[in-house]
Amino acid sequence: MAAETGTGVIVAVRYFAAAADAAQCEEEQLVLDDGATLGSLKVLLVERYGDLMRRVVESGSFLLNGVVCKDDALPVGDRVDVLPPFAGG
Amino acid sequence: MHSRTAQDLLAIITSDEIDVRAVQKAVGAPHSGAVVVFHGVVRNHDEGQDIQSLDYRAHPDAERILAECCRSVSEETGLTVAAIHRIGHLEIGDVALAAAASAAHRREAFDACELLVERIKSTVPIWKRQYFTDGRSEWVGL
Description:
The complex is a heterodimer of chains A (89) and B (142). Chain A is of the alpha+beta class. Chain A has helices at 18-23, 38-49, 51-59, and strands spanning 9-15, 27-32, 61-64, 67-69, 79-83. Chain A has a five-stranded mixed beta sheet with strand order 2-1-5-3-4. By secondary structure, chain B is α+β, with helices and mostly antiparallel strands. Chain B has three helices and ten strands; from the N terminus they run ββαβββαβββαββ. Chain B has a five-stranded mixed beta sheet with strand order 1-2-6-8-3, sandwiched between helices. In chain B, strands 4, 5, 7, 9 and 10 form a five-stranded antiparallel beta sheet that branches. Chain B is elongated. The relative contact order of chain B is 0.26. Chain B: This is Molybdenum cofactor biosynthesis protein MoaE. Chain B: It holds the Pfam family MoaE. Chain B: It comes from Terrimesophilobacter mesophilus.
């Protein structure tokens, strides 16, 4: 008997490198609350996947609409990539 | 997977062995008296531990972002730059990154190449898993 607080939004989440190790998959669909932000996505991911994911989201970034982002206040939209800290070069 | 901007900047992500002369040729010009080429090479140690090999992974957008990186450095310095990053399994001694800049004089070329390498490392979504000689492995940077 959950209260109707909105329909929620389905978000396609892609995981890379250590994030894929933490999630044990490379892509999945998550249901987030309407108006979900990167900050609330981080909380959900850490709850689901634990310490390795916590280290990924605390030191990494996200790709939203083709742009690398770190601002927790940004809205998630319908697609987001979880990016561990970069280690090129 | 070749990206070239309007200024014909070379920016490539490849799983093939890097042709280190390609970045040098890409930045060379009759007015340039200095060409600086940096090779990032897989070394056999990291923070006191012995490294066996590395695996590099790139985001599907990495080549576009590498091209943006080259373009921004070129616009800021007014110089021609180029970069090729290799991904996949690399052994000790393999070149993982070749970056180049050219200028009329060496100081500007050294500075631009340094700026380019720093920006590639901080902004291009590439990840590196290192395999130690004792069989363990870990993602770098976590």
